[in-house]
Design brief:
alpha+beta; 99 residues; single chain
């Protein structure tokens, strides 16, 4: 792994980013202490970020207002459809009615 000081990073950021785009990982040092790492994103991170950012930009999604309390979410009362009722048909009906 390549190492770069904060000063070197500041003065050569474009070149370092190009190296990262080509697969390199770069450890950023404040004197001799590691403080950050530049490394390529994997395709899953990129596609997930791009999709979420695109939905937010288009107004189709919003960023979270608070962190999800997973325990409370899983403990909430569940709603069940009656036997024989299709959730897909109910969803399509709601869409047709503009809900």
């Amino acid at each position: 792994m390549k190492k770069a000081s904060i000063t070197e990073t500041k003065n050569n950021l474009s070149r370092l980013i190009d190296e990262v785009k080509n697969g390199a990982s770069i450890l950023i040092l404040d004197r001799t202490i590691p403080v950050a790492k530049l490394e390529p994103l994997n395709s899953i991170e990129i596609s997930g970020f791009d999709l979420a950012a695109s939905l937010v930009r288009r107004g189709l999604a919003a960023t979270p207002r608070h962190q999800l309390d997973v325990t409370q979410f899983l403990d909430r009362e569940k709603t069940y459809l009656p036997i024989g009722v299709s959730s897909v048909k109910a969803l399509l009906k709601d869409r047709e009615e503009g809900r």
